[in-house]
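Batch manifest, entry 17 of 40.
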Amino acid sequence: MTTFVNVLKRSGFPLAAALAFCTVGMAAADSRPAHYESRAPANVKEAQTSLTEAVGDITKAWAAHDFDEVHKISYTIEKAANVLANAPNADPALSERLAHTVEIVHLASEIKSGKILAVAVSELDGLSRKTLTVKD
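Output type: structure tokens
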């Protein structure tokens, strides 16, 4: 959590205002949700497909206010974003913003913050469209 806090402070990320809420919510939570395994995409093309599908799934899960499903899907998105960030011609600023947004979605789903998720899922959808311009 400390790394996440430091990264957001350095980045000036627009959703950084959510940081205080996430931090307080995590400290107040009685128990943390389960952690899930997801397979890392093998290449940029797989990562793009995985990201597109997962963002669609997370948007549907959020529409149903299924915080646990949002949390589960965030692991898939995180792995896809990591592969895309390490592509030779990836945009570092876009990759960093995507990583921050995924982390906010992940943490907000853990503390079941609908207000933060409403903003972050929308941001994630927009960023995923921009990220799809990365090529192998």
